[in-house]
Amino acid sequence: MNVIERFLRYVSFDTQSAEDSDTVPTTAKQKLLGAALAQELTEIGLHGAKMDEYGYVYGWLPATAGCEGIPCVGLIAHMDTSPDAPGDGVKPQIIHYEGGDIPLSERVIMREADFESLKKYVGRDLIVTDGTTLLGADDKAGVAEILTAKSKEYGHNIFLVSDEPYRDIVFDGKTVPYPAAFYPHTLTCLSFSKTLSLPGERLGYVAVNPACEGADILVDILAQISRFTGHNCPPSIIQKAVSRCLDATSDLSVYETNRNLLYDKLTELGFEVERPGGTFYIFPKALEEDANAFCMKAREFDLLLVPSDTFGVKGYVRFAYCIDTEKVRRSLPALEKLAAAYRK
What are phi and psi of 180, to 5 degrees? Predict the structure, then answer.
């Protein structure tokens, strides 16, 4: 993955900060990029790659033999973007600049008269947005440079396994880009049990980008892996049915209604929580440090929650709202009682 491919991937993450927040980081969504970067650092061979509870990502490369006594060099970049303009739904585009104004979209023009520094870049390729969002280049370009510099030391391509069962479950008219469109060595995984709301159905696919190194071999290997793990050959009738639903999703308006009910009640009760832009989960911060203990307490009020420890982050709990709206409404009084138990 070269530096441009990495950068285009990183700007797809919304890492907008919030000036009125007193948490670290100021928005929980920044940790989504942090987790992805920690995984990427591990994949390229750095030691001790991890993200801590505050969203800081670390990794280190051991010294070359014989150079252990030489002072270390630290490469640092930040992940958050400014709250002054939208940070989600970024639509990056690469243009070859030949001077003059740049039409970012039908309605937005970047005028040379307003940006005199553009004259320095005549004859070069530029990465820009469509003018409706930030690009986030001041930070994510630095992150891309660091990751690319380290990956070059290993002398081979890095394969990106993109797990995307929730890619199509997004709200507010937004879309999520396909990483495979930006990086050729991508394997895309999708589960119809999520997009079509078919819990328990082990039906999906792994798509190998045709431009991926060894694509033909990977397709054959993945078919064999599927057989050995027992997730092969679902009934032919459901395979035929799902083939007609490739561009369909379940009724997202139900999820969106449920999301709003839970988010409004959680914020009303004083929970620290990010408003989900998609999926059918919401992750508020537990009302005590131990999320497992909080989940056990919730059971006293017939609320079944999942501690975030399962997903590599401590102190939060997961609510699932892929149920009918009436059940969500019935859960709200129990949620009020749970919150009240921590105010005593």
Answer: -60, -20
